[in-house]
């Protein structure tokens, strides 16, 4: 789609799907809009599955030399082993450690 070529377009679609999922969870099962919102959700899900297929993802190794903004994002979103400090993240991505992420060209 053309949205995927616009700066911030893929992020817009991801955020839109998030909003639609919230809307679906709040919609009454008897709402006249339920079917339309479910169809929109299905269409967005299919589109995002295409955008996030393997050929559009880049595997990137994370090291202490990686951009600070990226290390900060990792520390904020780590769910299994919460990061307590910069020295904690430095140890995790330091020598003899392997940390990788998938990135998408269209997302910040």
The helical percent reads 40-55%
Rg, Å, rounded: 18 Å
Number of domains: 2
In angstroms, what separates the terminal alpha carbons?
19 Å
* Mean pLDDT rating: 90
What is the count of helical runs? 4
Could you say which overall geometry the principal axes of the C-alpha atoms support?
elongated
Query: Sheet bearing the most strands, described?
Result: 2 strands, antiparallel
User: Structural class, judged by helices and strands?
Assistant: mainly alpha
- Give the low-confidence spans: none
Instruction: Let me know the number of strands.
Output: 2
Describe the structure.
By secondary structure, the protein is mostly helical. It folds into two domains: 2-52; 57-104, no CATH class. Helices cover 49% and strands 9% of the residues. It is built from four helices and two strands. It has helices spanning 9-26, 34-51, 68-77, 86-92, and strands at residues 57-61, 100-104. It has a two-stranded antiparallel sheet with strand order 1-2. The longest helix has 18 residues, at 9-26.
Summary?
The chain has 108 residues and is mostly helical.
Descriptors:
108 residues; mainly alpha; 2 domains; 2 strands; 49% helix; elongated; Malonyl_CoA_deC_C; MCD_N
Helix and strand arrangement:
Blueprint: H1 9-26, H2 34-51, E1 57-61, H3 68-77, H4 86-92, E2 100-104
Antiparallel strand pairs: 1-2
Helix pairs in contact: 1-2
